Amino acid sequence: AQKVTQAQTEISVVEKEDVTLDCVYETRDTTYYLFWYKQPPSGELVFLIRRNSFDEQNEISGRYSWNFQKSTSSFNFTITASQVVDSAVYFCALRGQGGSEKLVFGKGTKLTVNP
Amino acid sequence: DAGVIQSPRHEVTEMGQEVTLRCKPISGHDYLFWYRQTMMRGLELLIYFNNNVPIDDSGMPEDRFSAKMPNASFSTLKIQPSEPRDSAVYFCASSPAVGIQETQYFGPGTRLLVL
After folding, report:
1. Among partner residues A44, A91, A97, which is closest to B43 by beta-carbon distance?
2. Distance CA B73, CA B23 (A)
3. How would DSSP label each residue in B25-69?
4. Mind listing the pLDDT tens digit for each residue in B41-93?
5. In terms of CA atoms, which chain B residue is nearest residue A5?
6. What share of chain B is helix, strand, coil (3-state, %, to 5)?
7. Measuring CA to CA, which residue among A15, A40, A21, A14 is closest to residue A93?
8. For residues A13 and A69, what is the distance between their CA atoms, to the nearest angstrom?
9. Which residues of A touch B95 (CB under 8 A)?
10. Which of residues 52-91 of B touch A (CB under 8 A)?
11. Contacts of A5 in chain B (CB under 8 A)
12. What is d(CA B50, CA B64) in angstroms, rounded to the nearest whole number?
């Protein structure tokens, strides 16, 4: 079975703080992909990043960075110098060979950035 | 290029009424997915299509739900008769092709309230 756990239900920070959103996954597949999506208050789901199981290089995109560690089955997301516009619910998701086309989502972490 | 388009964006109806949600995937995408999002259950995959053919409908809650994809650019999700517990946000997503590496791109969602 495939599973994604986002243990942090809600996080609240003050603008300019750094914040890390945790994602732990379970799968028996050797080949799988991990995704992060953002859901702002307006409600749409916005794709942020995709990472495959063979690429453990960390990735940085502006203020966003992702840390993928297979040894701990984690794919954490860090926002540096957070801004109010980062306030949203963030979802981690997994898609593995054993799950066909299904994307398995975590429950999401609601991030609130206060001015 | 236009993203996934869903209509209506909001729907309020009374119990027992028929509800039809509509989706236009991104042009050229062979896969279309219907998801439901609730506070209790998070994001759930209801059904997905490949080249207009339903592949897996195991997530459809019950016979009151049905989905069709008459052509590559249009899909509907119908609930008949609707019940208050069907109140949720319904997302449509599409992806380019087969393969676990493919990213699913989501529409803005339809917020359904059944009174």
Report:
1. A91
2. 8
3. PPTT--EEEEEEEETTTEEEEEEEEETTEEEE-TT--STTEEEEE
4. 999 999 999 999 999 899 998 899 999 999 999 999 999 999 999 999 999 99
5. B42
6. 5, 55, 45
7. A21
8. 25
9. 101
10. 55-56, 89, 91
11. none
12. 22
Which of B42, B45, B108 is nearest residue A102 as measured by Cβ atoms? B45
Q: How far is B18 from chain A (nearest CA, A)?
A: 24
Q: Specify the pairing of strand A109-114 against strand A10-14.
A: parallel
Give CA–CA dist A81/B35, Å, rounded: 33
Predicted confidence (pLDDT) per residue in A52-67, tens digit: 898 888 888 899 999 9
- B82/chain A closest Cα distance in angstroms: 23
Give the C-alpha separation, A102 to A29, whole Å.
13
The residue whose two tokens read 């307006």 is: A42
Distances A48 to A28, A61, B28 between C-alpha atoms, Å: 25, 10, 21
